[in-house]
Design brief:
mainly alpha; DNA polymerase, domain 1; hpI Integrase, Chain A; three-stranded antiparallel beta sheet; 8 strands
């Protein structure tokens, strides 16, 4: 169904409203002419838009479209309906209205920035159906010749692809041209060693608030936006956990990255630190004296000042996230646990820390050199020789029923937990193991 709600700013009062739009792109079966119908729904509800969409399709099928809607389009000068294929510049405005409803604020700003910097100049005046693989390849080559990083070029191509996919969903175009992304080198990351982190915390002692934020970021791996939006209601000091659900990005409170909340497990030292840091300035855990949120730019300057005092290279707040994960990897914590601690949805994002675990592969294969357990060295029992045409009682084909004790060797416990009991035990052991993994990384004094 090609009906979509989009956000549109009114020219009269400047307010943004949600508008239901009907989009149809079909060939006239009688004349072979391309019909592009894009019009605001007469009844501004989902059902009203769907009814209008159905009526237009029926008029195309029975050959009455041009007599009914064609004349209406020609006479309605103030209508948003387009009788021809829209340009990239025009359609991107509609795509952005769609993105404002379905994407985070920061993602909308990112798409707008990529279009303004790169896409508008190359494709802005082209019709949507005039974008070809050759023109896309020429666009990539032009950006590459300007010494842009392959990841930046890929981001611009991804924004173009999303816009074209949306046009395909609305049936404005028949197909999306092939878009080939560049091979980008694996991104490198910086992190502080154990000694460097101690130096940084010592240098930050001149300002207890900055030191507190650096300490918490390095011990939990939260991003800056999550750190600045952390509230006391998100923290459970008794359980030693913090729930990360929101982020402050581009001046707005939004859901965290990928819209996926996760739980941070706190070390005993971090819990004790939070108890001492408790204040009544407001709901935010880290804030200014008046309870207001710290400005990212000012916090970034403060972190670099602490780096200079410590005699270290200047770093960003995100380096503390890499530091948290790197220290866990160097202490032998599994990548699956690190993935959970960082809130990654894909293990590929966590694999970047695998090289910091130099011995984990050797330890994994070293089990092959260990002596075999005693219970596995026992020779298997010999079975009685069967007469031709007879079947063993334990043979599944014999038809004889088998019990649990028949299939379990002697000496093994045959008690079976129910699914509910097993799930409870797994959940409890899961959380305790994560706390143990973090506690093994505890080396800093708050």
């Amino acid at each position: 169904m090609s009906t979509r709600p989009v956000e549109r700013k009114s020219t009269s009062d400047g307010k943004t409203r949600k508008v239901w739009v009907v989009n149809i792109c079909r060939k006239d079966p009688a004349t072979g002419k391309q019909i592009v119908y894009r019009h605001d729904a007469l009844v501004q509800t989902r059902r009203g838009a769907e009814d209008q969409h159905r009526k237009v399709l029926n008029s195309i099928a029975d050959g009455t479209y041009w007599d009914t809607y064609g004349k209406e389009m020609e006479n309605d000068e103030e209508s948003d309906t387009l009788s021809e294929m829209p340009t990239v510049r025009k359609f991107f405005e509609e795509f952005l209205g769609y993105a404002k409803i379905h994407n985070k604020h920061s993602e909308v700003l990112s798409k707008q920035g990529l279009f303004d910097r790169y896409l508008k100049e190359a494709f802005g005046d082209l019709k949507l159906d005039a974008i070809t693989p050759r023109k896309i390849d020429a666009f990539s080559a032009e950006l590459f010749s300007r010494k842009l990083h392959p990841k930046t070029i890929n981001n611009a191509l991804a924004a173009l692809r999303r816009m074209l996919n949306y046009a395909l969903e609305l049936e404005v175009i028949d197909k999306v041209p092939r878009i080939r992304q560049l091979k980008a080198p694996e991104s490198k990351f910086d992190y502080l060693t154990f000694q460097e982190l101690d130096q940084l915390l010592a240098a930050a002692s001149y300002n207890p608030e900055w030191r507190a934020m650096i300490f918490f970021a390095a011990k939990t791996g939260v991003r800056w936006g999550e750190l600045s939006e952390l509230r006391w209601l998100d923290i459970d000091l008794e359980k030693g956990t913090a729930r990360i659900e929101r982020s402050f990005t581009k001046g707005k409170v939004t859901t965290r990255k990928n819209h996926h909340a996760y739980t941070v497990f706190l070390t005993p030292a971090t819990v004790e630190f939070l108890k001492q840091h408790k204040h009544d300035k407001g709901e935010l855990v880290f804030c200014k004296a008046d309870g207001e949120r710290h400005i990212h730019r000012r916090a970034d300057v403060a972190l670099k000042r602490c780096c200079r005092k410590a005699g270290l290279r200047q770093i960003s707040w995100h380096v503390l996230r890499h530091t948290f994960a790197s220290h866990l990897a160097m202490r032998g914590v599994s990548l699956l646990d690190i993935k959970e601690f960082l809130g990654h949805r894909d293990i590929k994002s966590t694999l970047r820390y695998a090289h910091l675990m130099p011995d984990h592969k050797h330890k994994a294969v070293s089990v092959l050199d260990e002596p075999m357990p005693v219970n596995e060295t026992a020779e298997p029992e010999t079975t009685a020789e069967l007469q031709p045409g007879t079947k063993s009682e334990s043979d599944p084909d014999s038809g004889a029923p088998m019990t649990v004790s028949d299939s379990v060797p002697d000496g093994l416990n045959t008690n079976v937990l129910s699914a509910e009991e097993d799930e409870v035990i797994d959940d409890e052991s899961d959380d305790s193991q994560r706390h143990i993994a973090l506690t093994s990384n505890e080396s800093l004094q708050f």
